[in-house]
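Hi everyone,

Forwarding the result from last night's run.
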Amino acid sequence: MKPRISMITLGVTDLEKSIQFYEEGLGFPRMESEPTVAFFTLNGTWLGLYGREALAEDANVSAEGSGFNNFALAHNVASEAEVDATLEQAVAAGATLVKPGQKVFWGGYSGYFKDPDGHLWEVAHNPFTWIGPKD
C-alpha cells in the first residue's frame, strides 16, 4: 500500500486573486494544473484552491449557510476500494456521510464526510496523479 497524504483544499470566491496571494504574496511554490484549480506544495502536504461554488457543488452541499464552511480537507488514497473503506471507517468513528464514494467528473473516484465538528472531508483516489510521497 502506498503512503497516504492529506491535502488542504480551500473554496475561494476569486481564484485568480487567491492564486496571486499564495504564489506571489506568500511565495508558495505552484504546481502545474488545469485553469480551474491551483495546487501548491507545502512541507508534507499540498494546498489546493478551487472555486467556492464549484467545490460546494462537487460535495453536493450548499455554498451558503451551514452546508459548506468555505473549504474541504482532502485525504487521498491509492484505490477506489480505499476510498470506500476510509468513508466507512470515518462513519464508524462518528462522522456523517455526505456523499458516498463514486466516479466524479474529473475522472477520479471520491466521496465526502463531515467530521463530528462539521468539517468537510473529501476522500479521493486520483488515477492520473499519485498525490503522496515518492516511493
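Residues 91 and 97 are 6 Å apart (CA to CA).

Cheers,
N.
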